[in-house]
Each structure stands twice: as C-alpha cells, then as structure tokens.
Amino acid sequence: MIRCYITIKGASTTTMSDNSFEPRIVAFLCNWCTYTGADLAGTSRLQYPPNVRIIRLMCSGAVDPIYVLKADLAGADGILIGGCHPGDCHYQEGNYKARRRVVALKEILKNAGFDEERVWLRWISASEGQRFADTISEVTAALKAKGPNPMKGQWAV
Questions:
Q1: Is residue 5 in a domain?
Q2: For 46-156, where are the alpha helices, taking DSSP H only?
Q3: Which residue did the predictor score with more confidence, 154 or 122?
C-alpha cells in the first residue's frame, strides 16, 4: 500500500482582490519526458514562474486520482500532470492511462463541487524545455486569474 502525504507549505491565503496572490502548483511529472523537459528548461536557464512544486513519477500513468485530490485539499491552487506524447510512452500505454484517468477525475471533481479546470494535463517531451516553461507560465497566469483555491480549508482530511 502506498501512502500519499502532500502538504503545501506556505499555501496562499490571500483573497482574489489581493494583487500579490501567487498560486501554488503541484506538478506530477513523468521521469522520462516531462521531468527531463523541466530539467532542460532549468539547465537552459529559461525563465518561468517559481510557483511549481514538482513530484517526479516514473510514468504519468502512475498518477493516482487520490494524489490529485490530496494536493487539491491540501491547498494547491492548481495541479499539472505531465507525460510523454501519446505513442511515445516508455511504458507503452501509460500516457493513455493518464488521459483516461484525468477525464474521469475531472468529472468526479465537477460532481464534488471542485473546479475541474484547476487540473491540467500536458504532453511535454524531453527536448521541449521551452514548452515546459511556457506551460508553467500559462498555468500560473490562468490560476492568477481564477484566484486562490476556494476548497482550501473547507475540507478536513
């Protein structure tokens, strides 16, 4: 049994009217592609917001919906799941599994009263450091427009 402990230290508690709001993003990244793309962005010194906390997994197909729910309930303003492009998974079909799980997860989140648009799924290969930086910038800008996670503090886990 795998236990998932996610705590978001310093999670924002500002209001939407506060211009200093900086969203906290938890990113579950595939070791072989998206994590390596993030590493390329860093070694290439590409600029992107420091709002992301990366959790490296061997495959995006290993992202359990419970991990996403725990991150959401722990105060993350957004969750990014990154994997290999479809057809390029090192584990054959892990990214297809991730895509099916995210579709089901978004439906569950919507039915439970969560904002399903706070969960993002992106395919980023190891050679796409610029795409990783652009994705983090895009997610950060979208979450700034949405404001803090309204579910934070409403659910006791």
A1: no
A2: 65-73, 94-112, 129-146
A3: 122
- Distance in angstroms (rounded) separating the CA atoms of residues 16 and 82: 27
Flag whether 44 is in a domain.
Answer: yes
Q: What is the largest CA-CA distance in the chain?
A: 46
- Summarize pLDDT for 42-92 with one digit per residue, the tens: 999 999 999 999 999 999 999 999 999 999 988 899 999 999 999 999 999
Region 9-31: mean pLDDT is 75
Q: Which of 29, 108, 14 has its CA nearest to residue 61?
A: 29
Q: Give the CATH number for residue 57.
A: 3.40.50.960
Boundaries of domain holding 115: 25-146
Tell me how far apart the alpha carbons of residues 88 and 132 are, in angstroms, rounded to a whole number: 17
